[in-house]
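Sat 14:20. Reprocessing the chain from the morning session after the first attempt stalled halfway. Input below, unchanged.
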Amino acid sequence: MDEVGARRRWWLRTGLAGITGAVMAPVAAGTAVVGLFAGTAGFVALTLLVVVLFVVLLTFVAQVAPDESRFGGSGGGRVFWAVLVAAAGTVLWLLGWSVGDEAGLGLSGSPVLWVPATALLFALVAGTLLRRWYLALGSLAVLTALGLVLLDALAATLPSDVDRRAAGDDVRSLLVASVPGYGVVSNQRSWQLRPLDVDPSSTPPSPFVQLYAEPDAPDCQVDPYQTRYPSGPDCEVERPGLFFVQGPVGNAYVHRVDGRRLVLAGPKSFDRAVLRDALLTARPTGQDGAVTATVPGYSATSVSSGGTVFTPDDRALLPGARNIEFSTRTAFDGQCVYGALECVVESPSVRYERFEDAHVYVRVVDGKEVTVRGGLAVGRDVLRTAALAAHPATDDELRAMLPVEQPSTPDRSPMGVARHLARVLFG
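Finished this time. Tokens:
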């Protein structure tokens, strides 16, 4: 055949390479699986047999239009070409098979799809080794385009950074809203808002007042290692048996009476005279050695021999009284919560509930019930506006809320590299 005819046979060369690959690649994979049950020697023998047969068949293919190949000028070149096509084609075939399966393309489930796809893959690999640069470059371009299509399909099935940070939690169903003057609390799995004028790294002083009964000791002699109440550095004896202790974040009055000490501790802002007068009202409760006292504006909420805790009657002074939190439910009855001190149904989809330490607005949105809870220092109108503005959380809102993704050991496997490329290229 003349030179022009020979040059026109490049398509036959690449086509035969594709057909050979479509036949031998699955045979090689199947033989390797069978060889696993034949022991090490059987596996090696079967694998070598299939590899040799694959290379031999491709060597025969290499005799077609040898001048069209960069490695077709000699017998050694044709064998080298056969090894390149077999190795590169098989590696890409296995990787493409895995990527296609993970991407849910369904290629591996139908011979009608994977046989032509395999033939095309090996034909393109052979095409990249053609002598004419535009044919080789065109084959490489088509091969690259097909790879990008697979990676794009794979990227669509990979969990986003938001889903990875959610760690299985159903955060996509959350309803959230922004509130002026508030910022979202990070590293959480729920939508929590805190006032922007509060330093998140600082610990607010405790508003509680506590009363303790202890063994007697001389005035101003306080164990510096105990942490229940201030131990100094300043101590003032008002009269024998009654002294005042000032600490960095709180103060305490101590009254020595009936062979023991009664200690009433309060926050730094608590009025000293009121603290003193309240301590002087201390008296036994009649149960297990517990004591109580009359503290204006406070009520005893926990009474035991270990101490009595007084809580402000004004619940707006409690820790977190200015905080707001959203919660979303998909199963609900639409009824007022049992135990609510007040429940006002404003509309079929909106109601207000007040409790002893908090109040909430509840709104039904698209089959979900969002509850916006705030402390008593949060205005009712603020909660209502937030509830009416509640909407499905965006990815940016979820990123602001969720814990930061923990670093992990990079996956260096072929599929790990493919997943990484898919994320980088297609998000």
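The mean pLDDT is 88.
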